[in-house]
Amino acid sequence: MTSRRRRLCAYLLALVVAAGGLVLAGPGAGSADAVSVCQGRPTRTIGFSTGELRLYRTRHYVCAVAVAKRPGGPRAMSVSLQPRGGRAAVVAGRLSRQAGPVTVHALNRCVRASASVAGRGASTGWILC
After folding, report:
1. What distance in Å separates the CA atoms of residue 79 and residue 67, rounded to the nearest whole number?
2. C-beta of residue 68 within 8 angstroms of C-beta of residue 54
3. In a designed cystine with 29, which of 23, 25, 43, 87 is the match (CB 3.0 to 4.6 A)?
4. Minimal CA–CA distance to 122: which of 59, 67, 40, 62?
5. Hey, what's the torsion of the CAs at 10, 14, 15, 16, to 10 degrees?
6. pLDDT tens-digit profile of 3-31?
């Protein structure tokens, strides 16, 4: 093989590897806040000292996520969402970045949400009626 042919092969191999990386990782692989894990439009964000409770809504569903202000080691986190007249859906555990998503069917119903990160938290009354 000539040196020109080797350079062409090396260039094509680098191009294929770079394209494969974009396909597997996607263009925004490094930004965790760019994409939400919940469907729907952001409805409310309730901040507290160690994190925030994010609520999203579609026509039929409400979704909630608790996000830590400073991601780090595992700590106690929880998020709950309860439609009026229904049972609360809860996600809890020792997590490092976020708790949830929690989704409930809430067509024409109010919901109550709460979240905590490392012992501090926030809750709402009946909202999104």
Report:
1. 9
2. no
3. 25
4. 67
5. 100
6. 666 666 566 555 555 555 443 444 444 43
